Each structure stands twice: as C-alpha cells, then as structure tokens.
Amino acid sequence: MLRRILFLLLLLPQMLSAQNSTSYLLQPDRVFDGTEMHEGWAVLVQGNKIIAAGAKESIRGGKETQVISMAGMTLMPGLIEGHSHLLLYPYNITDWDVQVLKESDSYRTVRATVHAKNTLMAGITTVRDLGTEGAGYSDVALKRAITEGIVPGPRMIVAGRAIVSTGSYGPKGYDTDMQIMLGAEPADGNELIRVVRDQIGKGADFIKVYADYRWGTKGEDQPSFTLEELKTVNEVARSSGRYLVCHAKSKEAMRRAILAGAETIEHGDFIDEEIAQLMKEHKVTYFPTLAAVDAINQYRGWKKGKDEEPAAVKNKKKSFRIAVEQGVTIGVGGDVGVFPHGENVYEMELMAEYGGMKPLDIMKAATNVNARALHMDNEIGAIKSGMLADLMAVKGDPTKNISELRKVGFVMKDGVIYRDETRK
Ligand SMILES: [Zn+2]
C-alpha cells in the first residue's frame, strides 16, 4: 500500500503538467526567433511547448486557444543570463565581505527569492548561476523551490560553492590567527578530485574554478592553479557529464583555462590577439562581465561621462574590443548581483557602448549563443516548434536600440504567463 501511495506521489508532477494544456496564440508586431527578426509572425504555444511559429496567416489555434494580441511589441525567446549570482546583491548597499561573513545562508536565501522574481519579471527566463559566494548550496535549494513552483524565478543551472586554490580567495586582510570562511571552497592538487565529486554530488550542474585572483605581490591577478590542476578538474567534471568554466582575468590564467578544457572564460580582462585566437581554436565562449566593472568603479566614486576612465574600465574595453574584432564567441553574462537583479540589460547596453556590437548580435548572444554555452540549445534560446515556451515581449523594436529590452510587457516561462501588460 505504502509503495502504491509513493508511486502515485511520484506521478503527481507529471499529471499536473499534463493538465496544463492551455493554448495561446501570440500575435506581436514582429518575432525575433533567436537568430533573425521576422515581421508579421505569430507564435502558437500548447502546454509548456512552442508548437508553431511563422507568418500570421499560416498559424491557427484550436477552439480553446486564447489569442493574445501584442500590438507594437517584439516577441522573442526569454533572455538567458550567462553569469549571475542570485545569492549576492549590490556592494554599494552591503559590502561583499559583510554579505559573505555576517549574513546567514537563510537570510541570503530569502533575499535571493526576491532576486529570482525580479530576474524573471525582467524577461530573463534562465540563468547560469556562478557560485553562492559563501552561501553553501543555497543555489541548489533555490533552484528546487523554483522548479517546484514554490517561488517564481528563472530556470537555473548552478555552480554551488565553486572552487579556489588555498590562499588566493577572499574575504582577505583579517587577522591570520582567525580561520575566515571563504567565498568558495578551497582545494589543491589531488584533493581537487574529491572536491569536484563532492560538489557534483551536492548539486553542481557544472564546475566553476577561479583560475586566478588578486594574489600577486602587488595584489594583481595571478594564476592560482597550475595547468595540471585545471586539467584534473576538467577530467573529473567531464567524466560525470559536466563541464568546467573558469574565472580568469590575466592572460596566463586564461591560457591555462583554455588549454585545460574550460568551455567558458569569465571576465577576461586582458584578452589580446593571441588569447582571442586560442579561444576560437578551442571553441571557448567569452562572458565579459562588463557591467560588474562599470558598476564597481562607479561605487568607488567614478563619475561616468565626467571623470577620466579608471584603468580597470580601460582594460576591460580594450579586451572586449579585441574579442569582438577577432570574432570570439561572446555570450551575455554581466556578473549580476554586483548590480541589481532585474537590471541584466545593463550588460547588453555596455556590449553596444564598449564594443560597438549591433543590437541584433547582442540579442543573439543573449538567446542563441547563451543557450549553446549552457548546453540547453535543444530546449531554450529559440522560437521554433518543439522548444520550451520561454518567451518575453518588449514594447518597441530592440534592434533599433538595445535599451528597448527594458520595456518588458510580457513574460512566459514553461508555458505559464508571469507578466502580461499587453492589454494596458
Ligand atoms: Zn561572478
């Protein structure tokens, strides 16, 4: 009997989703399908899937289909954030050290539920979360609560605690007599094998490693792991069907990360032609996190547009421009959390401002390119038959001005409408 009840309980979620066979016919002015813009298209959704997309005249729903007219709007795949920290919030409100050391995981997780909601309402239907920064596996728990429909939020793939080498990571500068809790899990040498496996066991969807950090003699970015160590992490992650992503700012750390098999480089502040070519050769995707640097420098007093650009901003611009010019695959990942959740478009605006990227290419990066980088391109990041119904619509045409992506008027995730201002 007990077994029978358990069996029924296991079936319950499937039964619920099968009942969600609501059908919608969405009629915007234009549809960006993840690659191209199409005027006069419509999209048909049934349950949690897109079942048709094409010229308005050719798409018809059934008797039960609800028609949503989206006059003046552009419909597109839900945006994908490639580099988030839902467990963090802006450092000008609370210093990173304080968030890591003085705030409990429970408190941070409660805050994170609000961050998740703000993210979804801004049209971001998926995030790749790059580490909890001292909040253990709260990302795994948050992901579960979102998946179960307990709280609204984007789909999440998560790193868990992330890995750093001994001595490299923060919080820093405290009395050495004290054992300070770090923002990620330290491991070195062969110990990395156990730690990678432990993180996977606790829910990491991929492995994030800090391949360098500010621990040079002058506080500059220096590689924190040897090439062999990074190769070990990559091999252990791969053998479980997961992959490696690396925080790397310095040239040498990027070189080691790429050669070790990392799939994405985070930050990359010192890309030159040689590194750009190496990234292309190894099919590495670059997540620039322009917004993090732009925001942090403003928190430190830089008056953008008035003062001279700080060195960190200059380096970032130069590095990003080289990546664009050399044709490196570039995703959208802003390190959101450093700046407010829901303001994810900030990174996309800087991709235009810093590197002269065209709005359409930035939109492609935030959907098609990011979906591939997340190994989810058969589910999300495109509008075509068979894909998950993760959609957003904005007032206006973002190919004319990328900031139009802020004018969100409609958000659907998994076939469920979370925001609808089409009738307002
Ligand atoms: Zn980050």
Essential attributes:
single chain, 424 residues, alpha/beta, Urease, subunit C, domain 1, TIM Barrel, 2 domains, 8-stranded mixed beta sheet
Describe the structure.
With 424 residues, the protein is of the alpha/beta class. The strands form 5 sheets. Strands 1, 2, 3, 4, 5, 18, 19 and 20 form an 8-stranded mixed β-sheet that branches. Strands 11-14-15-16-17 form a 5-stranded parallel β-sheet, sandwiched between helices. A 3-stranded parallel β-sheet has the order 6-7-8. Helix 5 runs parallel beside helix 6, helix 6 runs parallel beside helix 7 and helix 9 packs antiparallel against helix 10. About 4% of the residues have low confidence. It binds zinc ion (ZN). Zinc ion (ZN) binds next to loops. Zinc ion binds next to loops.
